[in-house]
Write a structure and sequence with these properties.
There is one protein chain. Strand 1 and strand 2 (32-38) form a beta hairpin. The mean pLDDT is 81. The chain is built from four helices and four strands, in the order H-E-E-E-H-H-E-H. Strands 1-2-4-3 form a four-stranded mixed beta sheet, with helices on both faces. It has one domain (7-127): Ribosomal Protein S5, domain 2 (2-Layer Sandwich), CATH 3.30.230.10. It is globular. The protein has helices spanning 14-23, 61-78, 80-89, 107-127, and strands at residues 25-29, 32-38, 47-52, 93-99. With 128 residues, the protein is of the alpha+beta class. Helices cover 46% and strands 20% of the residues. It starts with 13 loop residues before the first helix and ends with a helix. The structure holds two RNA strands.
Length: 128
Amino acid sequence: MPLTFGKEYKLCSKRIIDAVFDQGEQVKAYPYIARYLITGLPEPVAFQVVFSAPKRTFRKAHERNRIKRLARETFRLNKSELEMYLKNQNKQLALFLVYTAPKEVSFAENQKAMSKLQKKIIDTIDAL
RNA sequence: AAGGCAAAUCGGUCUACCGCUGUUCAUGUGAGUGAAGAGAGGAAAGUCCGGGCAGCGCAGAGUACCGUACUUCCUAACAGGAAGGGUUCGCAACGGGCAUUGCUCAGAGCGAAUACAGAAAGUGCCACAGAAAGCUAAACCGCCUGCCGGAGCUUGCGAAGGCGGGUAAGGGUGAAAAGGUGGGGUAAGAGCCCACCGGGUUGUCGGUGACGGCGAUCGCCGGGUAAACCUUACGGGCUGAAAAACCAAAUAAACCCGGGCAGAAUGCUUCGGUAUUCGAAAGGGCUACUCGUUCAAUCCGGGAGGGUAGGUUGAUGGACACUGAUGGUGACGUCAGUGCUAGAUAAAUGGUAGACACACACCCAUGAGCAAUCAGAGGUGUUUACAGAAUCCGGCUUAUAGAUUUGCCUUUUGC
RNA sequence: UGGCCCAUGGUGUAACUGGCAACACGUCUGAUUUUGGUUCAGAAGAGUCUAGGUUCGAGCCCUAGUGGGCCAA
């Protein structure tokens, strides 16, 4: 499974984002909160993601950029398990990640949190 | 040498692996794959000014409103910049006056600051205090003086008090009291007179000009506030890249409410109309208002509702950058050569590991010194400051670890 | 991206044309009451978001910043 993480993985459709918040499930793994929904996507990929850093806690644009870059990088390095799972199940997932910590978290901790989060998502989907 | 201020430049580098967004080339029917090369700033920030660009049919006039404010120049333009002028403050040579080695006035020069048009067009305000807070000023305490008065006594001098006159030098009030200092003068005083300084008017010379020099003349002419109203001069049409144009997709030229293509009189008439005169309401657009202008008849305004939720252009070659020459005191201009230097769209330019440089902190062999202390090979630790393009430029303002260069000022040491 | 507004005791608000920053609630102390509440009397608590400037004098005027809120789409 390649480690590429291009534009097609980006969730842009406003309609799907609204649906995620209306009907989706919530999973927590500090410092992230994720809302997700199994639904059809406009691109032939396993999932599409939004990364978000709140403007209220991160006032400066470069701080928000940093948080989102770290999140994107760690997600890219840990996505293979989730992607394999979804491909096997033939499902598509819309995912919205919110960063909740009040400060920047190190790369190692980020990696831990991200793999934990993805495992949790797989578990909850299985439970359905 | 150290410190401060100002200006300018820079503000990490390299390697490996894994990625992100465009471009070009190759390959492939295609999805795609591979290679090459590019990819944040000096402030990208604040959004405080100015412009380019676009729309408002045409882009009009006046009023209102907003802004700017020493001069000349630079510039596409500006509230920006350059040079110059004035004013204020600090240091202060030479000098003047009185006195005699002190006080005071004034000030070449040097440095710093400066939102710096008009207060003699008008209006308002100047609390408290004070007699008085402003056209021609004004007597609270004082000072001087005329008359009355008479306590007293040294018997012709006269205190207190009263009525009047002169006086802005002194005191007092206040942020501010009607040119300043010194001298003469006087009953006491006063630009009343004089010297120096300041000021008004005016002539002349220099300067593009702000303004300055020199002279004449006037004893002087009149407080502050315009970051109060205002006046004068100059500038500004409004909106804003979510502007705007095009392609594609979708749908409803449907529904409801309001308004509209006027109207009147007279003449002629083949009764279809037509001519003249009067008259011109309501609405929309153009700038808030007025004027002016303009708009259509399947039209205009409003309501409720339905659909779409993509792409291209705008939009990155420009008031562009660098180098050289040249004109200018300078900002900047001109000419020649070379270069192409982000273009994302919920928003790319990153992550991990290692090495290096710089800087800082701590430890410390050692050296200088009587000492306080200073320097410091080496070692350990910390890994960058402020901060992320969003239509583009020119400025301003604010943030910024640290490094380098230049200029000025201060202090210390040595000669 | 563009535009608008606000900031005053612990809280909510005043302060006229620039002239001693006021009021209510709350807090504290005392009185009344067996105790608490109510009521009465008294007290403390700010220098007006920050830094400059104009002015004799600034909460108010001007400039720059900080923080908070709102609008268009």
